[in-house]
Amino acid sequence: MKKTLLLALLASLASTAAFAGAKCEAHPKDKWIKEADFKKKLEADGYQIKKFKVDGNCYEMYGKTKDGKKAEIYFDTVSGKPVKSEIGD
Fold first, then answer.
1. How far is 60 from 19, CA to CA, in rounded Å?
2. For 30-48, how does the pLDDT look when each residue is reduced to its tens digit (9 = 90+)?
3. What is the dihedral angle through the alpha carbons of 21, 23, 26, 32, rounded to the nearest 10 degrees?
4. Residue 46 and residue 33 in contact, taking contact as beta carbons nearer than 8 Å
5. pTM of the predicted model, to two decimals?
6. Fold of 23-87
7. What count of other Cβ atoms lies within 10 Å of the Cβ of residue 39?
8. Which of 75, 72, 65, 71 is nearest to 37 (CA)?
9. Where are the domains of the chain?
10. Which UniProt keywords are present, listed alphabetically (predicted)?
11. d(CA 24, CA 9)
12. 2 pLDDT more than 80
């Protein structure tokens, strides 16, 4: 029982670590798209934002796509282009 629980815990941690962070290019803060403006753009594109934050040099969004799929996406802070994403069901 303990061994099964430990294996399940390790598998969970490994899957979480596999998607940890993204490597976004560092840009001067005065060049970044304003957070409020970028969030409005995402919402206009159909995203439902549950959580939005700065993660290192990236904007990170948790929520849903316009198709209603669960999404975790890292964006470049100047271009707004996705750098890394995980889209679920």
1. 12
2. 999 999 999 999 999 999 9
3. -60
4. no
5. 0.74
6. Nuclear Transport Factor 2; Chain: A, (3.10.450)
7. 16
8. 75
9. 23-87
10. Signal
11. 29
12. no
